[in-house]
Amino acid sequence: GNSVTQMEGPVTLSEEAFLTINCTYTATGYPSLFWYVQYPGEGLQLLLKATKADDKGSNKGFEATYRKETTSFHLEKGSVQVSDSAVYFCALSLGKTSYDKVIFGPGTSLSVIP
Amino acid sequence: SQTIHQWPATLVQPVGSPLSLECTVEGTSNPNLYWYRQAAGRGLQLLFYSVGIGQISSEVPQNLSASRPQDRQFILSSKKLLLSDSGFYLCAWRLAGGLSSYNEQFFGPGTRLTVL
Fold first, then answer.
1. By the 8 A CB rule, do A84 and A77 touch?
2. Tens digits of per-residue pLDDT, A20-48?
């Protein structure tokens, strides 16, 4: 079946450290891939996305590259800030016309300390 | 621009009481609509989704139900709440049709439900 696997954490980093959150997927067909972020007490927001192999999504200093050969979409940021503390969700979508479903990973909690 | 509203923001209900959570979307037509639950410290669980008025698909059998009486209104209900229904409920919408796999979901601010 279709699924998303990601490290659950919690991940604790010092400010300005390098961040990697691994995400791998299993899917039939050619999914679109997403990273969402959830700040405490809020809903999810789209952080970035990629819709085909080798696409790189980027936003707010975060990047992720769609790697079809390794079925991965790892999230990276060169220098994290305290304000990046949140839960990050990797997700995929296969977008069939009558069954429009998004599959989320379990989420990775990130805490950035000053 | 599109916006999504959920209310109430927080709710405390006794076991066995009914529930009604409402979600409305503005600025778009015929969206796909979703209800998710997020238990404390856990990931997202898809509860229901809808591709049109009156069309509801259930992902997890339970004591919750959903309805879509209008194009941009999605309601989550229960006749009798259980302790296990506590959690953070999120509504989301997404553009439908075409290459919809490209389209991200937009989430509401959520409702924090505590069942005592």
1. yes
2. 999 999 988 788 999 999 998 889 999 99
**B94 to A106: CB separation less than 8 angstroms, yes or no:** no
Is the Cβ pair B101, A95 closer than 8 Å? Answer: yes
Using CA coordinates, name the residue in chain B closest to A94: B101
* Three-state helix/strand/coil letters over chain B: CCEEEEECCEEEECCCCCEEEEEEEECCCCCEEEEEEECCCCCEEEEEEEEECCEEEECCCCCEEEEEEECCEEEEEECCCCHHHCEEEEEEEECCCCCHHHCCCEECCCEEEEEC
The CA distance from A73 to B80, in Å, is: 41
CA atoms of B93 and B74, how far apart (whole Å): 10
Q: How confident is the model at residue A107 (pLDDT cuts 50, 70, 90)?
A: very high
In whole numbers, what is the pLDDT of chain B averaged over residues? 91
